[in-house]
Amino acid sequence: MEIDELIEIAKKSVVNCYAPYSKFHVVSVLEAEENLFFVGVNVENVSFGLTVCAERIAVFKAVSEGYKEFSKILIYSPDGMPYPCGSCRQVLAEFCGKSFPIYIASNREIKVFTLGELLPHTFSL
Ligand SMILES: [Zn+2]
User: Where is the CMP/dCMP-type deaminase domain (predicted)?
Assistant: First the structure.
């Protein structure tokens, strides 16, 4: 799908974010195949360490449905540029190669990086 289509999907899902503490709403749209994508939103918890980012929720939804190969991810927020945290970068690295495209968008700008640019040295066994 075109990135504009993924952004429209993300905008419609902002309402599902659960971000009462940070007020920073994030939606990820992870594309597995053409017209097959998984949406994740950030889900916060009053015990802050239990919060899970939108990116990891999208990845875990996809993997739990049997998909482990992805073509791109969009991370969108209406509240600012939602650069992925280190944990999410490492989780993406479990399934995606260094050339995997990561689109990061707010209502004002959009940037694209490869996973290798955002996480040049991954942990591996
Ligand atoms: Zn994260």
Answer: 1-125
